[in-house]
Amino acid sequence: MSIDALKARIPDYAKDLKLNLGSLANETVLSPQQLAGTFIVSALASRNATVIVSILAEFGPKLSAEALTAAKSAAAIMGMNNIYYRFVHLAGGDYANLPARLRMNVIGKPGVDKVDFELWSLAVSAINGCGMCIESHEKTVRAHGLTTEQVQAAVRIASVVHAVAVAIESEDAMATQPA
């Protein structure tokens, strides 16, 4: 399955998603690695098998083996961190003063340029709604020279990929219901 096959699965009421998915696949403000990795981490964070398979088929071959592993690592580690740090942020109190005691070694040695890994972590954090992680990763990518437009492009990709997953999953669920 590819982007075209994925677009064919998007229902007519979500035509804007289909159009956005197509245009974002050709986004030029991100490097090819940043673009492909952002699509992949966003698909993984969407947790929809159809979206994951389609996005991996389209963008997986555009990454080196190391970059693909780094993208998968970003989605995995942020799946953990977004829950933990969202709790810390929302609960307040002394939790922010305690060590997390969670292994996060991949963040220090992601296997790709730090800025790319941080951008992918930002995209996953946007999908998962962790304000503390969004702030941290946005600050880091900006300090590493990414522009506002590049950050926006990554978050636009995350939002559209996630919305496509929601639309497809909703259609699949409704198809199983009696008429």
From TrEMBL:
Residues 94-168 form the Carboxymuconolactone decarboxylase-like domain. It is an enzyme of class 1 (oxidoreductase). Keywords: Antioxidant, Disulfide bond, Oxidoreductase, Peroxidase, Redox-active center. Its EC number is 1.11.1.28. The active site is at C130, C133. The keyword Oxidoreductase applies. The lineage of its organism: Bacteria, Pseudomonadati, Pseudomonadota, Alphaproteobacteria, Acetobacterales. GO terms for biological process: cell redox homeostasis; response to oxidative stress. This is Alkyl hydroperoxide reductase AhpD. GO terms for molecular function: disulfide oxidoreductase activity; hydroperoxide reductase activity; peroxiredoxin activity. The keyword Aminoacyl-tRNA synthetase does not apply. Belongs to the AhpD family. It holds the Pfam family CMD. It comes from the Bacteria. It catalyses: N(6)-[(R)-dihydrolipoyl]-L-lysyl-[lipoyl-carrier protein] + a hydroperoxide = N(6)-[(R)-lipoyl]-L-lysyl-[lipoyl-carrier protein] + an alcohol + H2O. Disulfide bonds join C130-C133. InterPro entries: AhpD, AhpD-like, AhpD_core, CMD-like. Antioxidant protein with alkyl hydroperoxidase activity. Required for the reduction of the AhpC active site cysteine residues and for the regeneration of the AhpC enzyme activity.
